[in-house]
Design a protein that fits this description.
heterotrimer, A alpha/beta (279), B alpha/beta (256), C alpha+beta (366), A: 279 residues, 7 helices, 28% helix, B: 256 residues, alpha/beta, 10 strands, 40% helix
Chain lengths: 279, 256, 366
């Protein structure tokens, strides 16, 4: 642990500011709380929001897991885990069930989470309406008035053009029947895991200086039409390593001829299944 | 019958310059009122101020809500203003491109206000959108075409469908036919007259064209230099104008 | 048998070693000293301090060396260090009237009290590459000593009431952008803070666009001055002001034509630019953009990118922009997979439709 820096890098005043903002976020599920995002020793867009939240949450007894694309071994996940091992000296793990705090980019673990776990999402763009309305002052007003017709225009247009809703990730959700919220760029496959999750879900967007929360057991509804209900991705394949047929699969190109194989994106889940099969 | 909109002593100034000055009128349910005048006479400013798109410098606008309550627009919160604009009012702009979403299909344009009111059945939205396209004489098979593929007249008819689909009680129209060819204008005016009658709409329409007022409006207000110079039944104003400016307007129409 | 890629940790370690090697270059060549960078690359040091929002020449020099001369990376390094520093107070407002001037020019009057002072500028070099190393010249003696403080050019117009007055007394306490998020609408003090940290290249482009018809502001360079200004603080426990040092600043005041509007009489208006160290291009760009962003307040029609508060302020920061553009390097396997399966569905639908249409055509033609 590097002693030139405060525990978990941020000074205690900054952590207090973050915790207050987090409490506000939990009190107003799905509402984007502006916060005094700090410059972190990680580029903006690489998880600066997530690591500030994690830094504010971590205590010496916490066990941290970091995943990117579902995997513990992708370079950015390794780098963030190394960062906290260095500045906080906390225990780290690759096992979902062992972790008390899980920082993630783009996935929710396949293993069901518990009440005593917190999932921290890295969020590049917290505003689900941004691509439809670039002005921040206007999108904040739309949220204040719960005026979400615009989002439905987009979904309508998808069905009119493609026959179904053509949003495959960062699929918008309505949290607790009130705030339209970005679940971060997780595949829509993961959206059902947000609904009534026993674990607290926190979202940090460092560059955009916003954080928000989905408290445990909160209703999270993926937007849809009555006659075009929300559906998740399905594969014709099973994981070629562990045989799972209910997990999100990565497609891997294995040779110059373009041969493909499908494997679990959640490396811990896949590894555990294989270990059980071997035993 | 009680009025729907009550305007009293309404003014809007642009800095030192007068937009409209001390205007009062009542609008009743089902009534179409035309405001005529040359460009720069303050008629569009009056329309936007009455519709709470511009803030009044002085005077008041009161609106009789569907639930019977009177609303003072001056005291309206932004939330209430938007709710009114979404649920009870409509606004048709002179340039249809200002009132349409150009990057989504005609169907989405018509369905948007319905979705904002909470309708979540795609099939039903399509059905209503098709019905409205037909009503404004656009081939329903073009429901998935973008407005940019439409002619100016079609775009204006689409904007009318988009505005009227939620059956608003009060519609503001700012020179809806000004940018169009004469033959296209006639068709739209005819359409508007039919829809206003069918739906029992109340409307305030701004126009520089007295012929439009004669065709559509029972009552007309004439503006010059930001003030109302004459107001009354349209036929009366056209046949027997009292104010010299109105006389000039009427004679210039008759001689051309 | 496929094995999921492992070894991210080792890859990072090896990459860091390669980086260190590439940065150092040939070991036979001596490493740059911080003094060399501070003294011989002083304008680079100034830029890193400006956009890194930290006045420390030594740390800026260190950042430039560590970043192998990549200015944006050096700025990022300094910002990441700055964020860990404790904030023990705010200075009194800097008084640029009392600047000990090294350079001062005005484009509006031929001569001004205190005179035009060129100082060290690249303006009149002939941009010929000097193949010999820079001659070590004797110190330059001033023909006559410069006065301790020079009156501001814009005050001359102020006396005639031809230029807008800005009353510092009514200025609200500014928000601290490094502690609070940028919110819209942003007041002028907040906008200026944002621009002062903003990327020089971005501001230059924005400023240039206003000169080419995207929001004309009819600017004149009222005054540009560069020199040292004392930094004062008033610690609560002392209750009086003490000087803690001096820093070099470049200040630019633009004078802009204004025909009146929004209840204001015709008068000249001001655009303001300020940056730490020598940074004339930055200060001038900032002043042009500042004035352009005042369009709403002055009732000017707003249509150009440089007039759009959200557009300019949300995209001016190089650390934010550079991070987000480059985050595309990170894995997006999961989202890409989702898009891939969506595209396969769409493409299958398309092919099916084409086949159906073909069948229908054949049926009708037969």
């Amino acid at each position: 642990m590097t002693s030139n820096y405060n525990f978990a890098f941020l000074d205690e005043n900054t952590k207090r500011m973050l915790r207050r903002a987090l409490l506000k976020a939990v009190a107003i599920p799905g509402y984007q709380v502006p916060f005094g995002s700090r410059e972190m020793p990680l580029p903006y867009g690489w998880g600066t929001g997530g690591i500030q939240l994690t830094a504010a949450l971590l205590g010496p007894d916490d066990v941290l897991k970091v995943i990117d694309q579902g995997a513990d071994d992708t370079t950015n996940a390794v780098n963030i885990r190394r960062f906290f091992a260095r500045v906080a000296g906390v225990a780290t793990t690759e096992r979902t069930i062992e972790a008390s705090v899980i920082q993630t980019r783009h996935r929710i673990p396949e293993t069901p989470l518990r009440e005593d776990q917190i999932l921290v999402f890295q969020v590049p763009e917290p505003e689900p309406l941004r691509t439809l309305e670039p002005r921040e002052a206007e999108t904040r007003t739309l949220h204040a008035l719960a005026d979400y017709g615009l989002m439905h225009v987009k979904l309508y247009e998808d069905i009119a053009q493609y026959g179904h809703i053509a949003t495959s990730y960062d699929y918008p959700v309505l949290v607790d029947g009130r705030f339209l919220t970005s679940p971060s760029p997780i595949p829509k496959f993961d959206n059902p895991k947000l609904d009534h999750s026993p674990a607290l879900m926190l979202f940090g967007a460092g560059r955009e200086k916003r954080l928000y929360a989905i408290p445990p057991y909160t209703r999270v509804e993926s937007l849809a039409f009555e006659d075009h209900p929300f559906e998740i991705q399905r594969w014709e394949h099973q994981c070629e390593l562990c045989g799972a047929d209910e997990s999100y699969l990565d497609e891997v190109v294995v040779d110059d001829l373009g041969s493909r194989m499908f494997v679990c994106s959640d490396t811990d889940y896949c590894g555990q299944r294989r270990a059980e099969q071997a035993a | 019958m009680s009025a729907l909109l009550q305007v009293r002593g309404l003014s809007h100034n642009y800095g030192q310059r007068i937009g409209c000055q001390d205007v009062s009128f009542d609008l009743h349910p089902g009534e179409l009122l035309c405001i005529v005048g040359e460009s720069g006479s303050g008629k569009s400013t009056l329309l936007k101020t009455a519709a709470a798109q511009l803030t009044a410098s002085s005077g008041s606008v009161r609106y009789h809500q569907r639930d019977g309550a009177w609303l003072d627009l001056d005291e309206l919160s932004e939330a209430d203003r938007r709710r009114l604009a979404r649920e009870e009012w409509g606004f048709v702009t002179q340039n249809p491109r200002d009132g349409l979403r150009l990057n989504v299909s005609a169907g989405a344009n018509v369905a948007e206000r319905l979705m904002a009111l909470g309708m979540r059945n795609y099939g039903q939205l399509r059905e209503i959108a098709r019905g409205w396209l037909e009503r404004v004489e656009i081939d329903p098979s073009r429901i998935d075409d973008p407005p940019t593929a439409f002619s100016g007249g079609m775009q204006q008819r689409l904007q009318i469908a988009r505005t009227l689909v939620t059956q608003p009680r009060l519609v503001f129209m700012d020179e809806p036919t000004a940018g169009l060819d004469v033959s296209v204008q006639a068709r739209i005016l005819d359409l508007l007259r039919r829809l206003v009658n069918e739906l029992g709409l109340a409307a305030v329409m701004v126009t520089h064209d007295l012929a439009v007022a004669r065709l559509l409006a029972a009552r007309t207000m004439v503006m010059q230099g930001g003030r109302v110079v004459e107001t009354g039944l349209t036929d009366q104003i056209l046949d027997d104008p009292q104010h010299p400016y109105t006389q000039l307007l009427v004679s210039s129409v008759l001689t051309t | 048998m496929y094995v999921a890629v492992k070894g991210g940790e080792q890859a990072i370690t090896r990459s860091l070693q390669l980086l260190a090697e590439a940065r150092r270059g040939d070991l036979a060549t001596p490493e740059l000293t911080l003094d060399q960078i501070r003294q011989q690359l002083r304008l680079g040091v100034a830029r890193v301090m400006q956009e890194g929002s930290l006045y420390d020449e030594e740390l800026a020099a260190m950042a430039i060396r560590q970043a192998a001369g990549d200015m944006l990376e050096a700025i990022f390094l300094l910002r990441a260090y700055r964020t860990t520093l404790r904030r023990f107070g705010y200075t009194q407002p800097l008084d640029t009237n009392a600047m000990r001037v090294h350079r001062r020019v005005s484009g509006t009057f031929k001569d001004v009290p205190g005179g035009q002072v060129l100082g060290p500028t690249y303006d009149y070099t002939q941009r010929l590459l000097e193949f010999e190393s820079a001659a070590t010249s004797e110190p330059v003696e001033a023909a006559e000593p410069l006065p301790d403080a020079m009156p501001r050019v814009l005050d001359l117009l102020d006396a005639e009431a031809l230029i807008e007055r800005i009353d510092a007394g009514t200025d609200p306490e500014p928000a601290d952008l490094t502690r609070e998020p940028l919110m819209f609408p942003a007041d002028r003090a907040t906008r200026l803070q944002n621009l002062a940290r903003g990327d020089e290249g971005f501001l230059l482009g924005m400023a240039y666009s206003t000169q080419r018809g995207y929001a004309e502001t009819h600017p004149f360079a009222g005054e540009i001055r560069m020199g040292e200004v004392d930094v004062l603080i008033c610690p609560e426990e002392l209750g009086f002001t003490i000087e803690i040092g001096s820093i070099t600043l470049t200040e630019c005041q633009m004078i802009n034509q204004f025909h009146g509007g929004n209840g204001l009489p015709p008068q000249f208006t001001r655009g303001y630019g300020l940056c730490m160290g020598e940074g004339e291009r930055k200060a001038m760009s900032m002043a042009l953009v500042d004035r352009t962003l005042r369009c709403d307040e002055l009732g000017e029609p707003s249509y150009a990118p440089a007039q759009n508060h959200e557009f300019v302020l949300s995209h001016s920061d190089s650390v934010e922009a550079s991070g987000f553009v480059q985050h595309l390097k990170l894995p997006h396997y999961v989202d890409f997979q989702a898009e891939l399966s969506l595209l396969r569905t769409l493409s299958a639908q398309h092919a099916q439709r084409a086949r159906d249409e073909e069948v229908t055509t054949q049926e009708t033609s037969s």
